[in-house]
Specification:
By secondary structure, the protein is mainly β. The chain is built from 1 helix and 5 strands; from the N terminus they run αβββββ. It has a single domain, classed as SH3 type barrels, CATH 2.30.30.140. Strands 4-3-2-1-5 form a 5-stranded antiparallel β-sheet, with no helix packed on it.
Length: 80
């Protein structure tokens, strides 16, 4: 590849490879997320992010006659 096709990161990845990187939507307060942790009793549940602190997010689950606010790791959440 020519030097024009290489990025400024010492040629580790081409400009095209960086452009083709998968885009994930950020998890922000107000986002709808689904729990993807096989060891959690909330696996598969969908809720709303209330707040984020460090590597954790407080997620509100609502179901019929109950509401539950649970703190989960961000890596265990997927945008819904």
């Amino acid at each position: 590849m020519s030097s024009a096709e290489r990025s400024a990161d010492n040629g580790a990845r081409s400009v095209r490879e960086r452009a083709m990187a998968p885009a994930t939507s950020p998890i922000l307060p107000g986002s709808t997320v689904t729990v993807s942790d096989a060891t959690s009793i909330y696996n598969g549940y969908t809720g709303f992010v209330q707040r984020i602190s460090g590597e954790r997010a407080a997620v509100l689950f609502e179901g019929g006659n109950w509401d539950k606010l649970v703190t989960l790791r961000l890596k265990d959440l997927q945008p819904a």
